[in-house]
Every structure is written in C-alpha cells, then in structure tokens.
Design a protein that fits this description.
This protein is of the alpha+beta class. The N terminus is likely disordered.
C-alpha cells in the first residue's frame, strides 16, 4: 500500500513572518499580496475566515492594519499558478533551506550573549542579513534552527538589524515570549543604544533629530530618504561621547522609532554621516590616513527590555573586530557602560 504523504512529497510547515518597519499601517491583504503574490484574494479570505492566517496569534480581517514587529502566521499554502510571480519572490520560494556545517553552528552559538528559557540575545555579526531577500542565500532567519538548544521549536525574530549593523539582536524562544517582546518593541518599552563613529562632529553635541522618512527606488536599489510631506515619522537622539578635533566623533544613538536605516539617514541629514556608510553619503563617509576597514561603523551596543515574565534584560555587545581599528586610531574609549540618555526618561 502506497504512502500518500510520500507521494505528495514532504509536508509544508507553518511559517511565521515579522512585519517590517516599512510595512507599518499596511493592510493585511496588501501585505499578503506583497509576500505571497500567487495566492488570490478568495483563497486569502478563506484562510482568514478559518483562522489559519493570524496576526500575533489572533484572528484578523483582510483590512487589519499592521504594525512593525507584529508576526503573521502563514499556514501551508495551496499551490497556485496565476499571473507570473515577481522574480525575487520566485527565487525566495524556490531556494531550499541551506545546510550548515558544524563550524557554522559553533560560530553562531558563540554569538549568544544571553539565554534563558524565553529569550536569546545574539551579537549579530556585521554582514549577516536578518531575513532573506533577492540573492540572499545565507541569512539569520534560515539559521534559527541552529539556536534551538534544548527547546522544541526554533527561536522567533521579534525585531531586526540592518545587514551591515552589528550587535544586540533579541530572539524569542516560544510564542509567549514572542508576544510579550513584540509588544515591548511596538510600545517603545525597549531601549536600544547604538555606538557609531561619524565623519565630522555633530553640532550641538547632544540633540534630537525629527525627520520623516520614506522609501525610494534608486539606481542601486531601494533606499530611504527624508520626506517630511509623505514619510513616516522618525525620531533619533544622539550624544557625542568623544571627538577627534573636527575630524570624527564617537557618538551614542537612541532611535525612538525604528524605521529602516533610520540612524544612517538621520546622521547623514545633519551633515555627519556614519563612517563607512557609502550607501547614503558616498565618498564623504570615508576618511583617509587611518587603518580602517570600509565597513559601516554602527553597532547595536546595548539592549534594555522588559523580560516576558517580569524584571528587565540588560545586555551589552562588545565592540566588533572590524570597528576596533577606528577606535584605536582616534583613541576613543571602548568600555563605556553608562547610558547617556537616562536624563531623557
């Protein structure tokens, strides 16, 4: 007697996806169309009526407005062959989950800064994308099985860092923790402190940047831009901790909102781009005469967030190797631990 399951191939799994910052206030049906263009409106309505598609574990309607860091439950989807699927979506759908070596496992687990039954805080390396995209075969989302440890399920993403940004990234180890942590990020109960070196010294030495941002298509792909008329509100605090005359500054940054590339665009907008940020500042983002790698010098130094079961999590990520030459060259401190924004609470 044949095995029907084998004949159909391996069973499809339920998937969870996180709503991106640039998808804020998007209707669920439009979000679904962006991510799964092969699923028609009628099929989506049936999935919603039967509760198979959920937002943060709750039933939702097609017109539900989404917020950044919310999670959308995606059930196994029926095969469909409607109008051609965009090339990037086809590539993402057909790309098999990569196989990782023991070396990959050891390297990723060595990045764990904090772990308990509910939460993992990872020191994400610069250059590792959090989620996949066009031509992005290796990314953290595909590697989460390597961080299961003693848990039955894989950890869940509850926020993101840019590919080129290093430092503290929080993962939830179960559904309860994912809901609580997502609420903390959405409600701005999480404090994320970044370290950066800027080309030039921001004036005044401490301030707030309020500049709305929107996405545009450019020759090199998507990028964010200041757009006070149609953009989404973005607010960042900065403070200069040390500076090397007028050449460069060691700054701490606190993004009160979480727009894509927010800190990079904001610092460039006030005339002091982050060192190595050629995407937004071109050659103005680089300095001569220093043994510095041409990488983005932006590091998620510290995360302070309520623990899902009470109390607080406070984790600091060490300065990464690719940023040390610049700190050494300018003689900046590498072990400052105080929170420079406590007066703003």
């Amino acid at each position: 007697m044949s095995d029907a399951g084998d004949a159909r191939g391996p069973a499809k799994a339920v998937e969870t996806r996180m709503v991106a910052e640039d998808e804020a206030d998007m209707r669920l049906d439009r979000w679904f169309k962006r991510h799964f263009p092969a699923v028609g409106h009628g099929a989506l309505q049936k999935l919603l009526r039967t509760g198979q598609v959920r937002v943060d574990g709750k039933r939702a309607d097609a017109n539900t407005r989404l917020a950044p860091a919310q999670t959308v439950r995606i059930p196994p989807l029926p095969d469909a062959t409607p109008a051609p699927v965009p090339a990037d979506a086809q590539g993402a759908a057909k790309t098999p989950r990569p196989v990782f070596s023991d070396k990959d496992v050891a390297a990723l687990r060595a990045c764990v800064l904090y772990r308990d039954a509910d939460v993992i805080v990872l020191d994400k390396p610069a250059g590792l994308a959090v989620q996949g995209g066009t031509g992005q075969a290796k990314h953290l989302d595909a590697m989460l099985d390597l961080l299961k440890f003693d848990a039955e399920g894989r950890p869940k993403l509850v926020h993101r860092l840019d590919k080129d940004t290093s430092g503290c990234l929080v993962l939830a180890r179960n559904g309860f923790a994912a809901t609580r942590l997502t609420e903390s990020f959405r409600g701005r109960d999480a404090r994320k402190i970044y370290w950066a070196i800027t080309v030039g010294v921001p004036e005044p030495h401490q301030g707030r940047i309020d500049l709305s941002l929107s996405k545009e298509m450019a020759a090199g792909g998507e990028r964010m831009m200041v757009d006070e008329r149609n953009g989404q509100r973005a607010q960042s605090y900065y403070t200069v901790l040390e500076h090397a005359h007028r050449k460069a500054a060691f700054v701490a940054l606190w993004p009160r909102t979480g727009r894509t590339h927010q800190l990079r665009v904001h610092m460039n907008a006030i005339g002091t781009p982050i060192l190595g940020d050629g995407k937004y500042a071109g050659q103005a983002a680089f300095l001569d005469g220093a043994d510095m790698k041409r990488q983005l010098h932006l590091h998620a130094r510290r995360i302070i967030i309520p623990h899902p079961r009470g109390g607080m999590i406070d984790v600091t990520a060490p300065l990464p190797d690719h940023m040390r030459p610049a700190w050494d060259y300018f003689g900046f401190s590498q072990n400052l631990k105080e929170d420079p924004f406590t007066a703003l609470d």
